[in-house]
Amino acid sequence: MNKTLVLIFFISALGTYAFAQKAQDKVALSSVLSTLENQFSISFSYADQHVRHVMVTPPAKNLTLSEVLEYLHKQTGLEFQVLSERQIAISPPAQKEINICGVVADGNIPLSGAAIRVNSKGVAADENGYFSITGLASGDVLSISFIGYYDLDIAASEFGNTGCDTVRLRPQVMKLQEVLVRNFITKGIDVNTDGAYDIHARALGILPGLTDPDVLQTVQAVPGITSLSETVSDLNIRGGTNDQNLILWDGIKMYQSGHFFGLITTFNPYLTDRVTLIKNGTTTAFGDGVAGVIDIRTDDNINDEFTGGGGINMINADLFLKIPLAKNLAVHVAGRRSISDLLQTPTYDQYFNRVFKNTEVDNGTDITADTITESNQTFNFYDVTAKVLYDITNRDKLRMSFMLLENTIEYLENANTSAGVESKTSSLNQ
Predict the structure, then answer these.
(1) Is pLDDT above 50 for 6?
(2) Do residues 274 and 232 make contact, with C-beta atoms less than 8 angstroms apart?
(3) Given a cut of 80, is residue 323 above it in pLDDT?
(4) pLDDT mean across residues, the chain
(5) Residue 5 in this model has a pLDDT that exceeds 60
(6) Greatest CA span in the chain, whole angstroms?
(7) Rounded mean pLDDT of 73-98?
């Protein structure tokens, strides 16, 4: 039994010694090269990274120089080139040239014109995203780029030997900073980040053709908004009709927006604080605004002091008052009335002719009349706007808005007919 244990121990020790002896046979190539330089009086030229980690079994000492070089070549694969009797250059194994082709795509969509660059070569993908490059080494790296996509670096060795591989690029998502355009067209018109227009009535600058402040006429200065009937209130937004517009006044849906059959807006400009115009992309809260939304807001602040003003032009006279009743309570009142019953100005005549041109009122004729002896036309309008502002607390506010408007036209005609003198009065109240 003891002899068996001794035998097993002896065999194990012998195996360990043999393994250690075998492991010690491998030495660094750089050490072998130094020994060969002293043995054959030669010099090796090489790049350190090519031999740094290479381990070899030292050649037998009875080999000639050519046999030693062949021996090391078979072990390492390195190329040993004899430059002269005393100079030998060592280079990495020669790489076989390869030819590659591929298709650049985003999913299943080919990216025509994608740039592929490698070393000093460069090609562009055709309309199908296809490209091909010849004469590459397996270690070459291709850089593939396309506008709007992340660049991709891929080794030539990763391309298959048969067929063309598809290289898929990843879209590059760029988050742009929000843009807010101030004083668009003129002072007081801003473009918000959501594309809506903010018109600040009290800070509005000069607009062409606008002599008096008018909310709906100001809106027509924005691109994409016009009036095919050349009126103020009949607006066409992005080609839509007037009934496809949603007009809100302090959140109230408005069905009537013009005096003088659309030539003058019904919204008093002196109480208007801000107008928000949305041409497209309206939210579901504005379901009626298929073409666009015009949101008109009156002054929502309680003034510390009494303010007011008035004026008169060739069409109407106006007056507005902002009356603070208490620190947290105020009343805003504004009104306008036409002056045609007192004075018919040339401007009024032009407005009247514009509305009633080619009508019985303008021509003064009746198919049943033989001779018109007298005709008289009267057109009046007015509007009254009021708002009560009450701040219950710093966070709770009560607002009540009120509007009353009226348009009246009377047309009196006396005519001689076959039955005698007849009088006819036509009227319209709105």
Answers:
(1) no
(2) no
(3) yes
(4) 82
(5) no
(6) 161
(7) 83
DSSP letter, residue 25: T
Beta pairing class for 397-417 and 420-429: antiparallel
Question: How far is Cα 272 from Cα 245, in angstroms, rounded to an integer?
Answer: 19
DSSP 223-259: TTEE-TT--SS--EETT--GGGEEEEETTEE-S--EE
Tell me if residue 397 falls in helix, strand or coil: strand
Number of Cα atoms under 13 Å in the Cβ half of residue 275: 29
Strand order in the sheet with 141-145: 121-124, 115-118, 141-145, 152-155
Instruction: Provide the pLDDT confidence category of residue 17 given band limits of 50, 70 and 90.
Output: very low
C-alpha to C-alpha distance for 362 and 259, rounded to whole angstroms: 19
> Pairing relation of β-strands 189-191 and 258-259?
unpaired
Phi and psi at 40, nearest 5°, equal -110, 5
Query: What value does the mean pLDDT take over residues 61-83?
Result: 87
- How far apart are the C-alpha atoms of 376 and 137, rounded to whole Å? 100
Taking alpha carbons only, the member of 107, 138, 110, 134 closest to residue 123 is: 134
Give 177-187 pLDDT, tens digit per residue.
777 778 888 88
- Average pLDDT value for residue range 112-131: 90
CA distances in angstroms from 280 to 187, 244, 246, 275, 296, listed in the order given: 23, 12, 12, 16, 17
DSSP for 53-109, please give it.
T-EEPPPPTT--HHHHHHHHHHHH--EEEE-SSSEEEEEPPPPPPEEEEEEEEETTE
The answer to whether 151 and 143 have CB atoms below 8 angstroms apart is yes
Amino acid at 361: V
